[in-house]
Design brief:
Elements: E1 3-9, E2 18-24, E3 27-33, H1 50-56, E4 65-68, E5 71-74, H2 77-95, E6 100-104, H3 112-125, E7 130-132, H4 139-149, E8 157-158, E9 165-169, H5 173-176, H6 186-195, E10 199-203, H7 209-213, E11 216-218, H8 225-238, H9 253-263, H10 268-275, H11 279-291, E12 295-299, H12 301-304, H13 309-322, E13 332-333, H14 341-347, E14 354-358, E15 365-367, H15 376-381, E16 390-394, H16 398-401, H17 405-413, E17 417-421, E18 434-436, E19 457-460, H18 476-488, H19 495-503, H20 508-518, H21 538-543, E20 548-552, H22 557-560, H23 573-576, H24 579-585, E21 596-599, E22 626-628, H25 630-635, E23 643-647, E24 652-659, E25 667-669, H26 684-688, E26 715-721
Parallel strand pairs: 6-7, 6-16, 9-10, 9-12, 10-11, 16-17, 17-18, 21-25, 22-24
Antiparallel strand pairs: 1-2, 2-3, 4-5, 4-18, 8-13, 14-15, 19-20, 21-26, 22-25, 23-24, 23-26
Helix pairs in contact: 2-18, 3-18, 4-13, 8-10, 8-11, 8-13, 10-11
C-alpha cells in the first residue's frame, strides 16, 4: 500500500492555512490542519475539504468544450486554440481592438499560474477594456494606497498580534478568515488581544459573528460610515488627541491644519441622526482608541462596497496616521514579502494609474489598467463605436458576482463570441462559445503571490503538486502562453523584450525562484534569510515543507513610500473634493419606512460562488435567507421562514425570511454567491441547493462615484410576504 503525507497551503481563501493531506494509493484519506505550519499553527476551516471535492468533482471540465446548436461537445486543444484566436482576431479586425474585453474573477489571485501568466496573454490581446473582481471588492483600498503612498499595493495591514485595540468597520474576519489581512486562526488572534487586556470593537449594521465576540458593537446605518469616521477625526482634533508617533517627518504640518478645518463640520451631534450612533458613545470610543498604547482601525469589504468607499478608506488611514499608529508595531504596517510584488512592480513602473482612459457609456475612470465592472453590461448592450463584441472571462462568474446580473445575462447572450478559461459550466460560462479548462488545486504548484503581501507576518511557503495531471490536461499557464504566442504570431518583439518573453516561457517555479533570489531574503537581495548567509531560493523553500517564518512586520514606510515628495499625502484632492457630498448627507431626510436597506453577508463555508459544487460545504440547512429585524418583520406580517419577495429598482427575488435581532432595524441582509437555478449549467450539487442571487437586486448604476466601485451596501429594497398563487 503506497502512502504519503503532503503539506500544502490552502488556496481557497485569503488565510493561507497550512494543510496536512494524507494519501494512500493515490486517494485522499484525510485533510487536516498542519500543526507545524509556522503561520497557521494547525488552524483549518471547513473549506479545506473542498480541495478534495473540486479535484474529484465529476462536473469539473478537463478538456475543451464547444457550444453547438445540438449542445456542448468536446474538441481538441489544437482546434480550441485555433478557433479562439481566429474569432478574437476577427472581431478586432472588424470592430477595433477594444471591441474585445476581458473579465478576471476572484480565484485568479489565489492561483500562481494566473497571477504570473494571464497578464502576458491579456497584453497580447491589445485591448484596454479590462475588468476584474477588484471593483466589486477592494478597489477603494487601492485608491487610498495609490493617492496617499504612491503605490496601489502599499496596503496597510493590521498588526493584529501586537495591537491593544482593534477597531473594525464592515469586516467579519470570523467568517472571511481575514481579508486584506491574511491571518489564519483569526479568532484566536482576536481572543489574544482581549486576554492581554486589549479591546476589540466592531462597527457594522449586523451583529456579525465577529461582533458577537467583540468587547463592543456599534450598529451603523449602511452608507453612513463616512460620517462616523469624519466625526471620529473631529473629536480627535477637538480633544487634542493628534499624535503622529513615528512618522512626523512623513507628514506636512500644513495638511493637519487643513484636515482640522475639513472635519470641523462633522461633530458627533450632527452625524448621530444619520449614523444612529450616540455622540457620547462615539466620544468615549475615540478617547479609548487614542489612549491605547497600540491601536489599529481596519475596514474591509463593507467599507469598500458602498457609495463612499474611496473616501472611507482614505479616512481610515488618516485615523491610523494621526493617532500615531501607522507603520509601527501594533498599528497598521506594511509587509516585506519574500516575493516582493511591490518592489518588482516599482522597478517596472507598475505602481498604479488613474484616468488614462474612461468607459464609453458612463465615462468611468480607468485604474491600474482596468475599468469598473459596473460598466460591463452597458458596454456590451449599448450600440456604437467601441461596443464590446467579444469577451474573455478567466475564472470568473460575473452573472452572480457583479451588480444587475439579469442585465449581464442579457448582455452575454448578445456577444458575437465569448471564451471562458474555467473549470465549470456555470451561470456565466454557459454563454461562452468555447470553454478552456485548466488544471486546478491539487494538480498545480502553488505560491501565494498576493496574500503574503497582505499577511500579518512575513512568511513564505511553496506547495508542489500532489497529483499528476492527465495527458490531455493543460495547466493555466500553458493555456495563457499558447494563446499569447498565437495572438502574437510572427511578430517579433524588440530585442530588449526577448529576455522578458523567454522568462514567461518557463514553468512558474522558475519565476518564483528568481523572485526569491532577488527578493529581500535572497542571496542577491539582502541575505536576510538565515545566519549562515544562505539566501532564500525555491530549492531552499522546498526543503521547508511547512513553510518558513520570516518574522514580524517591521516599520518600513519611509523606505517604500513613492509619492513625489516622499511624504504621506493626507489630503488627496480626489477625496477632499468628495467631502461636500458627505456633508450633504447631514441634511438628508430620514429613511422611508416602506423601504429597507440591503447589505450582503459572508459565510464561512462559502467563498463567492465557486465552491458551491462541494457536497460537504453545501450540507446543512438552507443558508440563502434574508435576515430581517423582528420589528421590520412584524410591520410586514412576516414570520420566520415565510417566503418573501425582495425587490429593488433592477429586479425581484423570492427567498425565506430569517428573523434576527442581529440585524439593525431598517436593514436586511442576503448572502452573496447563490443563484444556481439558471438553466444550462452543469453543477449538480449547486443546482440541488440553488438559492437566489443578491446581485439580481444590486444596481449597476449605484456606485461610489470617486472610484467606480460597486455600492452593494445600502441598496433600497422593499420586502413583503409572498402572496399565495390561486
Amino acid at each position: 500500500m503506497s502512502a504519503k503525507t503532503h503539506y500544502r497551503t490552502c488556496n481557497l481563501c485569503e488565510a493561507m492555512c497550512g494543510l496536512e493531506i494524507r494519501v494512500e494509493n493515490n486517494q485522499i484519506r484525510s485533510i487536516k490542519g498542519d500543526a507545524d505550519d509556522p503561520f497557521s499553527r494547525g488552524h483549518i476551516c471547513p473549506k479545506a475539504t473542498a480541495l478534495q471535492d473540486i479535484y474529484e468533482d465529476p462536473d469539473r471540465l478537463k478538456r475543451p468544450i464547444k457550444r453547438t446548436p445540438d449542445g456542448w461537445i468536446e474538441i481538441s486543444w489544437e482546434d480550441a486554440y485555433d478557433e479562439v484566436v481566429e474569432k478574437l482576431k476577427g472581431i478586432q479586425n472588424r470592430h477595433g481592438r477594444n471591441s474585445v474585453a476581458v473579465y478576471q474573477g476572484n480565484p485568479n489571485v489565489h492561483n500562481l499560474g494566473s497571477m504570473l501568466y494571464s497578464p502576458q496573454f491579456v497584453r497580447a490581446l491589445r485591448t484596454k477594456i479590462r475588468f476584474s473582481a477588484t471593483s466589486v471588492d477592494q478597489l477603494p483600498h487601492h485608491y487610498a494606497a495609490f493617492f496617499m503612498f504612491g503605490h496601489q499595493l502599499l496596503l496597510p495591514i493590521p498588526d493584529i498580534d501586537r495591537t491593544d485595540f482593534m477597531l473594525m468597520l464592515g469586516a467579519n474576519p470570523l467568517a472571511s478568515n481575514g481579508s486584506l489581512m491574511t491571518a489564519p486562526g483569526v479568532k484566536k488572534r482576536l481572543r489574544a488581544i482581549q486576554k492581554r487586556g486589549g479591546q476589540v470593537v466592531v462597527v457594522d449594521p449586523r451583529k456579525t459573528e465577529t461582533a458577537a465576540m467583540a468587547d463592543d458593537h456599534f450598529f451603523i446605518r449602511p452608507g453612513k460610515d463616512v460620517l462616523f469616521l469624519l466625526s471620529f477625526l473631529q473629536v480627535m482634533f477637538a480633544q487634542n488627541l493628534i499624535d503622529l508617533g513615528d512618522v512626523p517627518n512623513l507628514v506636512d504640518p500644513a495638511q493637519l491644519d487643513a484636515l482640522q478645518k475639513l472635519t470641523s463640520p462633522f461633530t458627533p451631534e450632527k452625524t448621530a441622526a444619520q449614523t444612529g450612533i450616540e455622540p457620547e458613545r462615539l466620544q468615549k470610543l475615540v478617547g479609548e482608541f487614542c489612549a491605547a498604547e497600540r491601536a489599529v482601525c481596519y475596514g474591509r469589504i463593507g467599507t469598500s462596497t458602498q457609495a463612499f468607499g474611496g473616501t472611507i478608506n482614505w479616512l481610515i488611514t488618516v485615523i491610523n496616521t494621526l493617532s500615531g499608529n501607522l507603520d509601527r508595531p501594533g498599528g497598521a504596517m506594511f509587509t516585506s514579502p519574500a516575493f516582493d510584488i511591490v518592489g518588482i512592480t516599482t522597478q517596472s513602473g507598475g505602481t498604479g494609474s488613474y484616468g488614462r482612459w474612461h468607459s464609453r457609456v458612463r465615462n468611468l475612470p480607468e485604474f491600474a489598467g482596468e475599468l469598473p465592472v459596473s460598466a460591463l453590461g452597458e458596454e456590451i448592450l449599448t450600440p456604437g463605436e467601441g461596443q464590446i463584441k467579444g469577451l474573455v472571462t478567466i475564472a470568473g462568474n460575473p452573472v452572480l458576482s457583479t451588480p444587475n446580473g439579469t442585465q449581464l445575462e442579457e448582455a452575454l447572450a448578445s456577444l458575437d463570441f465569448m471564451v471562458a478559461i474555467d473549470i465549470y459550466l456555470n451561470e456565466t460560462t454557459r454563454h461562452a462559445h468555447i470553454i478552456l479548462p485548466p488544471t486546478t488545486g491539487l494538480e498545480t504548484e502553488h505560491y501565494d503571490l498576493v496574500f503574503h503581501v497582505l499577511a500579518v507576518r512575513n512568511t513564505a511557503k511553496y506547495s508542489e503538486p500532489l497529483f499528476e495531471a492527465g495527458d490531455e490536461a493543460r495547466a493555466d499557464w500553458q493555456i495563457y502562453s499558447e494563446l499569447r504566442d498565437r495572438l502574437l504570431g510572427d511578430k517579433k518583439r524588440p530585442l530588449s523584450h526577448r529576455r522578458h518573453r523567454d522568462l514567461f516561457e518557463q514553468p512558474p517555479g522558475r519565476i518564483v525562484d528568481r523572485a526569491l533570489r532577488f527578493g529581500p531574503y535572497g542571496a542577491y537581495g539582502g541575505k536576510k534569510y538565515n545566519h549562515q548567509g544562505n539566501g532564500l531560493s525555491l530549492k531552499e523553500l522546498k526543503k521547508q515543507r511547512h513553510g518558513v517564518d520570516l518574522g514580524a512586520l517591521e516599520p518600513s514606510l519611509s523606505g517604500r513610500i513613492l509619492t513625489p515628495d516622499r511624504q504621506i499625502n493626507l489630503l488627496p484632492e480626489i477625496f477632499v473634493n468628495d467631502l461636500p457630498r458627505a456633508e450633504a448627507l447631514l441634511h438628508k431626510n430620514a429613511q422611508n419606512g416602506e423601504t429597507l436597506l440591503l447589505i450582503g453577508r459572508r459565510q464561512l463555508r462559502s467563498n463567492n460562488s465557486w465552491m458551491h459544487n462541494s457536497r460537504r460545504l453545501m450540507r446543512g440547512k438552507n443558508r440563502c435567507t434574508v435576515l430581517i429585524h423582528p420589528d421590520d418583520a412584524a410591520q410586514r406580517g412576516i414570520t420566520s421562514l415565510d417566503e418573501v419577495m425582495v425587490a429593488s429598482r433592477v429586479g425581484e427575488i423570492a427567498l425565506p425570511a430569517e428573523i434576527s435581532e442581529a440585524m439593525m432595524p431598517g436593514v436586511v441582509s442576503i448572502p452573496h454567491g447563490w443563484g444556481h437555478h439558471r438553466p444550462g449549467i452543469r453543477q449538480e450539487v449547486a443546482q440541488s441547493t440553488p438559492g437566489v442571487s443578491i446581485n439580481d437586486l444590486t444596481d449597476d448604476q449605484w456606485i461610489d462615484p470617486v472610484t467606480g466601485n460597486v455600492a452593494f451596501s445600502g441598496v433600497m429594497v422593499t420586502v413583503e410576504k409572498k402572496r399565495e398563487e390561486r
